[in-house]
Design goal:
The chain is mostly beta strands. The chain is built from 1 helix and 26 strands. It has a 6-stranded antiparallel β-sheet with strand order 5-6-7-8-9-10, with no helix packed on it. Strands 2-26-25-24 form a 4-stranded antiparallel β-sheet, with no helix packed on it. The two termini are about 20 Å apart.
């Protein structure tokens, strides 16, 4: 497994390993900021910050595309909430145009049976305020259904066999409001919501988004187990784990899959339910710098034998890249994820663009 550590304490060692220009010279960033990805199955869907450039380089924090939610014929993006119109019959998929919806959001999801988006509001770059809003695509109006006291990170939605919708969110908890950290079933008639699993994340919102999911049939909650940050350690602590909660029986299981030491996990079920895509990502992915990168950081996990297959998701042949928050298209033929360059000079993270990966042969 190939690993690369980016630490200020070992900056000279890192630069020496990367510099091919000879001793005593400063390694130069390539002129081409968006070269072709290393994998021919990867396609650039939406570049960051088209018109926001400073001397040829994107301005940090402007026009980022941190994550995407894919529904038939459409992709919804954050941080700026936008709708991309996708030609779903074209391979690879192509962005046919887009519409700005409005409002900075950290997280977005859409059920396949509702004409609504569920979003988590963000007040400033990289900081969520935990308020759950619904955007009605027909009326083009936002409605707050849980205010910021709920401290919500993310929400997932599945249609059950009886046609009803299961909506589950993760809250970091709020001691002042008497709210326990954990996974809650959203009540359609208003609070209180049912606590399905009490679960405290020792890192809180430092994980950026809680990357839990629901199985396609709505029977199982899949959730990450993150460990407390260890100050001064290379990656921050022990490797994370994935676990499941069977919602009918209450039985829990930690999956027998080993992940890298990078601190956080984000997982999404394939529409068929037989496998997962998992992103194993470091701290600070929406900050100005990242301290560690593992080039083996996105996988397919087979739920039959729990084998783990790495994906080469790198989007730049000259930089290291941080590749985060993957999801499947509705047919399960493509992955969509966000990717940003990491400078080898100052470890700074560039802006995120959206890519797709053809998975039809995987």
């Amino acid at each position: 497994m190939k690993k690369v550590f980016l630490f200020f304490a070992s900056a000279m060692l890192f630069l020496a390993a990367c510099d091919t220009s000879g001793p005593g010279t400063e390694p130069e960033e390539p002129e081409e900021f968006f070269p072709a990805p290393v994998n021919n199955n990867i396609n650039l869907l939406r570049i960051c910050c088209d018109d926001v450039f400073n001397e040829g380089m994107p301005v940090y924090g402007q026009g980022d595309y941190h994550m995407s939610a894919w529904s038939p014929g459409e992709v919804y993006t954050t941080l700026q909430l936008r709708q991309l119109r996708i030609d779903k019959d074209r391979h690879p998929p192509k962005n046919m145009g887009e519409q700005y919806i409005g409002g900075d959001v950290m997280y977005v999801t859409k059920s396949l049976t509702e004409d609504k988006l569920y979003t988590i509001k963000v007040t400033e770059y990289g900081a969520s305020i935990g308020r759950l809003n619904v955007y009605d695509l027909s009326t083009e109006a936002f409605t707050t259904i849980r205010d910021s006291t709920y401290n919500i990170s993310s929400i997932r939605i599945r249609e059950l066999s009886d046609g009803s919708l299961l909506k589950v969110y993760y809250s970091y908890g709020n001691e002042d409001a008497g709210l326990e950290a954990g996974y809650y079933r959203l009540s359609e008639s208003g609070p209180p919501d049912e606590l399905l699993l009490g679960h405290s994340n020792p890192n809180g919102s430092r994980e950026t988004i809680n990357g839990f999911d629901l199985s396609p049939d709505g029977s199982t909650l899949l959730y990450p187990i993150h460990h407390a940050f260890v100050q001064g350690s290379a990656y921050g602590g022990p490797p994370p784990e994935l676990a499941t909660l069977h919602l009918e029986t209450g039985a829990t299981q930690t999956l027998p899959v080993e992940f890298n030491l990078q601190q956080f996990l984000w997982a999404r079920y394939h529409p068929g339910g037989e496998k997962l895509v998992v992103s194993n990502y470091p701290r600070n992915i929406v900050d100005i710098e990242v301290r560690s990168i593992d080039l083996d950081s996105m996988y397919i996990v087979d739920l039959n034998d729990f084998s783990r297959t790495p994906l080469d998701t790198r989007t730049n042949t000259h930089f290291f890249t941080v590749d985060i928050f993957p999801d499947w298209n509705p047919d399960g033929d493509y992955l969509i994820y966000s990717s940003a360059n990491v400078s080898r000079r100052d470890f700074g993270i560039g802006t995120y663009s959206i890519y797709t990966m053809d998975m039809r042969e995987n």
